[in-house]
Amino acid sequence: MGVKMKNINFKTSLALAFLTFIGLAIFFHFPAWAQSGLEGKINETINDLIRIVNLIIVGFIVWSGFLIAKGEGSGLTRLIYGIVGLVVVNAAYLIINYFS
Question: How far apart are CA 57 and CA 79, in angstroms?
Answer without folding.
Answer: 10
